[in-house]
Amino acid sequence: MTTPDTxxxxxxxxxxxxxxxxxxxxxxxxxxxxxxxxIMTLQPRIRDYVAVMGLTFQxxxxxxxxxxxTRADDEDISPLPRxxxxxxxxxxxxxxxxxxxxxxxxxxxxxxxxxxxxxxxxVVNLMRTFLPESSNEARLVDQIDSHLxxxxxxxxxxxxxxxxxxxxxxxxxxxxxxxxxxxEFDQRLQEYQRHIDPASDxxxxxxxxx
Length: 210
Hints:
This protein is about 50% helix and about 15% strand. It is of the alpha+beta class. It has 2 domains: about 10-70; about 90-210, Arc Repressor Mutant, subunit A (Orthogonal Bundle), CATH 1.10.10. The strands form 2 sheets. Strands 1-3-2 form a 3-stranded antiparallel beta sheet. The chain has a 3-stranded antiparallel beta sheet with strand order 4-6-5.
């Protein structure tokens, strides 16, 4: 006698589904509340499961997202091949991530909306100061759009489906750009400017900080 299919996931299937989804990228509570509840319930098992693959399960319940990262190498254990690949970021992409992270920090400080949504024009204006001057506005916007696409691939932003000129900054960016990094933000911006314009001389403030 066969058991009727109730459509419910078995415990083993639920674990497999949660791990597969995490391997594909960051999981947000708002995107899939059902999956989020499974992840909350299965936290210890997920952590043990991915540890075998050299990964660490991380979750921020207050912010509502979970993700996987590569486990730090242990001197007593032979290192495993990296499952989560590292990406070398260009200076403009790194700069854009830094500027978006600062905007999120400012929004959190003012106690505004939980979601940070920016106009593409606002992002262009954020970047304009730190990019070489261009007389071709359309080309500049295209370049920044290309950088935004890279940041979207990393999972730090997403474009709103019904408003393509609107960009949501995903809160996972806080896990990769921490408070200490933000404290060094001004110095990093000076480094970006020197990279873009190597001929520029450091200001007296720069010399004082060095």
